UniProtKB/TrEMBL annotation, chain A:
Pfam families: Abhydrolase_6. The keyword Hydrolase applies. GO terms for molecular function: hydrolase activity. PANTHER family: ESTERASE-RELATED. It comes from Caryophanon tenue. This is Sigma factor sigB regulation protein rsbQ. Residues 19-256 form the AB hydrolase-1 domain. Belongs to the AB hydrolase superfamily. The keyword Hydrolase applies. Keywords: Hydrolase. Coiled coil: none annotated.
TrEMBL record, chain B:
GO terms for biological process: cell adhesion involved in single-species biofilm formation; negative regulation of bacterial-type flagellum-dependent cell motility. Residues 186-315 form the GGDEF domain. InterPro entries: Diguanylate_Cyclase (IPR050469), GGDEF_dom (IPR000160), Nucleotide_cyclase (IPR029787), PAS (IPR000014), PAS-like_dom_sf (IPR035965), Rev_trsase/Diguanyl_cyclase (IPR043128). NCBIfam families: GGDEF. Keywords: Coiled coil. GO terms for molecular function: diguanylate cyclase activity. This is GGDEF domain-containing protein. Gene3D superfamilies: 3.30.70.270, PAS domain. Residues 112-160 form a coiled coil.
Amino acid sequence: MTIQKRNNVQFIGNGEKTIILAHGFASNQQMWKYILPTLSQEYRVMLFDYVGSGASDKTAYSTEKYATLHGYAQDVIDMIDEWNLTNVVFVGHSISAMIGMLASFERPNAFSTLIMIGASPCYLNDGDYIGGFTKEAVEGLFQMMELNFTGWASHLAPIVTDPERTPKATSQVEQTFKSNDAAIAREFATATFLADHRADLERIKVPTVLIQSKDDAIVPVQVSEYLHQHIAGSELVFLNIKGHYPQISQPEETVAILQRYI
Amino acid sequence: MQSSYSHLPCGFLSLNQAGVITYANPFFCEWIERVADEVEGQHLEQLLSVSNKFVFYSYFYPMLHINGIVQEFVLHFETSEEQQLPAILSAIRLGQGEQEHIDCIIMPMTQRMKYERELRDMTKQLECANAEKDKAFQELQKLHQEIEQRQQELITLTNTDKLTSLYNRRYIEEHLTRRMQQAKPDSFSVLLVDIDFFKKVNDTYGHQIGDYVLIKVARLMREHIGEDGIVARYGGEEFLILLSSANQQQSMKIGKALNTIIREYLFEYVQHITISVGIATYREGDSDTMIVNRADRALYYSKEHGRDCVTHFRDIEGVLHP
């Protein structure tokens, strides 16, 4: 299985500089579709789906590997190695910001800039640290997922590895999540909410830009300030907008900010 | 237009592109126990708990923007008293540019949620029951393996001589009977070994030392025979060795070697002992009794002719039967 197929990697545009757009939890590369046309005019944009997400090859998924964000970071490292990428601008949305950071530790020379959109190093509250989520809220969240995913409720739900049953490119509207994705989504959720990478922040050597909606229900302002304080030389840019998906809700503003820092 | 929604038997919300509620029908307001002024002008997320916000932003919102439509999405809305009300949401994105907006239908599902919970509980119970069943099955399998192992141990026990750990008479006789079938002339040999003057060892040094000698002799012989045959304790101080592929010549060689090994071994307490050996090699029409009988007569010959020696029955056949 090639890395290209495994992660459904697409290169769009012919610019000299390569930009990796990395989607977040429970998402896929389509999240970038509104800002892609503008970016690909100037840059070579790499899109991909993490193993287990979107149109990736789900047979490559293993519970053991993807139990922590390091498994997802390995996806990024594999892609960097496969295409010998250097001087890359890595744009990570949501949990992907931390995944990009982990990858940058392993391939420090491959990255020129880390751009983190709606990032958080730790979602759970912990003493004075406000991550935005209490344990109860996370439980509630899992319950909500249970109600919206067939098979989510079953702790024994197998991760389907039969390629025949792996959903191909999503031509038709996906109104519900497929049951074979449920176990993966649950594990991705667990990996996301168990993640605590606060101690890693000071190891970041790549220039980092934090882009944050001013009013993000998932990432409290304190988290962005925490990141800004703990990542040496980082820049924090607040967008005067609402929500966790600026690249979807305010694509023009988002792309303008991105262009300023690329 | 919006007046036509006011009589709908379900909630109806219209949101602008940013997610701010521009219209909420009376059914919806009544359902979440808020007045229209509290709802309209608010962002939808204001009506959601933290968990629901996350689900809304992680799934509902991106899906709606990518696919233009979301169906049967479950969310809980919060009343002003922070009570959680479950509902099924279907939403569609309409219009272009400035006109873009989102229409949502909200079906309360408090009753349905009870069924869901029941189903979920039942599923969990079933899974637990299944897991218990699997566990019980595994335990059963483990028990089976243990029984099998015990059985093997039992078989070994019934075939083994307790003192020397060699095969016992029972086993070697059975084995010999099996070996007789389809055997070819000169294909194997039987050695009978007797420790010379063993009674004297017992009388002089006691039974414990006697036992020590038996164990030692057994081990020395087994080490020498190795894979070439089976050594068994045949009775008191008598051993039967089945050499599985030795003819007359080869069996004599091995017999003599055994003789030397025992003679030269320095035993504790008793210093030196010797053995007498009688050998018979399989011949046409043989039976297990016959071959052992011949080996016994050869052994007797060794005993009668000075002990500490090896006799093959064929070498004395003429002498015994003039």
